[in-house]
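In practice, a research group might receive sequence data for several interacting partners and want a quick structural hypothesis before committing to experiments. The following worked case mirrors that situation: the sequences arrive first, and a predicted assembly follows.
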Amino acid sequence: MRTVVRHRLFWPAAVLVVLLLSNLISSPGFFSVTLQDGHLYGSVVDILRRAAPLILVAVGMTLVIATGGIDLSVGSVMAISGALACVRIADGAGWAVAVLAALALSLILGLWNGVLVSVIGIQPIIATLILMVAGRGIAQLITGGQIINVTDDAYRVIGAGYALAIPVSVLIAAAMVAVAVVLTRRTALGLLLQAVGGNPVASRLAGVHARRLTLLVYVFAGLCAGIAGLIYSSNVSSADSNAAGNLIELDAILAVVIGGTALTGGHFSLAGTTLGAVLIEALNVTTVTLGIPVETTLLFKAVVVVVLCLVQSATFRTLVLRRRKNAIGAPA
Amino acid sequence: MTALGTTPATNKQAPPARNRVYRPKLRQLPVLATLALLIIMYVIGTANYRGFSDTQVVLNILVDNAFLLVVAAGMTFVILTGGIDLSVGAVVALTTTLAATLLDAGWPPAVVLPAMLLGGTLFGTGMGAVIHFFKIEPFIATLAGMFLARGLALLINRNSITITDGFWTSVAQQRIRFAPGVFISSSVVVALVVVLLGAYVLAYTRFGRTVYAIGGNADSALLMGLPVGRTRIGVYAVSGFCSALGGLLLSFYMLSGYSLHAQGLELDAIAAVVIGGVLLTGGSGYLFGTVLGVLVLGLIQTILTFQGTLSSWWTRIVVGALLFAFIVLQRLVTRRVR
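A structural hypothesis for the assembly, expressed as tokens:
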């Protein structure tokens, strides 16, 4: 029991379970999953489907944060990727061409961030701020300031379709998580990333190509954000440069922090991040089913951030522990 | 003998000849670059668009951006210590919402105004305390503050609240006229006073020196016996105060309180500070630079308005490009110093 409670992911998992269970109050059939026309339907499936873009973005963010960096531009990259895909399709290109073009552009944008951080040596938060500010402008430039609506059934499958009874977006997210896990845990890549995050100078002296690795994680984060942008725009069959990925960078960072990855870099948990992303989406769904005003989710997020950061803060922990020890040790 | 003795003294008084030609200090370079950019933009504007050279065009930039100027001034303090404050936009929104709600409930302006300023200051102090005592990264602590403030504002009222208070409307309409058709609003006066006060504090007080010292190297500052904790909390309090004041100025400008006011204002403020030549890692920069940064942002918008055919999204792209240019410039400058 004690080892279970002590586990890194115990608290986020507990919060997720409580959140899901609290849905039973207003909708007793919350957990029922039905198979209809060969598609899985149900609130739980819906949470996963809605969480797919966030999971993707957060997984990319996790690797960036593992190297001690941060990527603020993911929301803008989402908007650009969705915009380019929709505009290409509206111009009459096939969906595959459009998707490939969008992904290629996302890779380039990721490369841009990576070059700024690793080659020019700008602080990550500042380097990615540039694309965060300019990105939405670029997305609007691509769409001409319009909301582009597309009617392409094949494209719609990415965000709203089903395969093997499971939503395609969930499958894509799961595949990317699997790729990230295999790359970082089955090869030495994960270890090297942690080394770079733990101490860039020491890792470079130890022969790790810190610069190349840093470049790589930003490219990966760009790719993840690009795919997330495709899922988002495909799900609503349109490209909205302002709404796509709005504030998702903050949610993604939140998911990473909830998952137990320290913002200072050095160690990371992809499972934790996925859990964190699902938790955030479950929170959004729960507030709706419970009839709580949607605005309170922001307050809740604030509380979660504060509590999690306090728990992670060494000073706070020693402060609390000392007090507890005093209380036990005090004679009267 | 006497000649030997007097030489150092004369050397001290008379500056060396090479200094006769004005050579800017390296850390002033970004500010001068911004100033040059501003002048070039203005010249291009006046050359291409009729009516651009009108004095009121320049004054309108101040009128439209008075609240941004105040918020960016607060942000400058925080960034000079090497921190960041993401909560400013949300605090502005919360201030407008809360002020409008209280005025609507019949509270007198004489109570609402100080209450808002005090509230903003306390909010900033709280975040500063969390950052300092629990060693939480400013980015995360102020992110939580942003969620909290925006959430509270939404909780108070989701809709836009019109302000009909007599004092508010009279301040909103008040114009300080220099000549027929040449005027500024009272918000501009407030903003300029804040900037002058801020510049004075940064340049001539112990608090200001400590701010630069922390930004330069917090550990050294601590070892020097400077009040690092108090100052670090202080800059977030200043930023909170400036955000609340900016919120009040925005509520004068808009005559409404709305929880979705000032979305993305934190980005504008950070952009203004960076374009103004303040080093984002802290320790170097001037409040005067921030003023220039705000003016550059305002001038971009004015040029786009005069151009007419260019769409609004070019603002963001141009601001992004400028950010890039200035960050790379800073990088080069700091590299040469080291």
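Before designing any experiment, note the following. Chain B has one domain: 27-337. The first strand of chain B starts at residue 161 and ends at 162.
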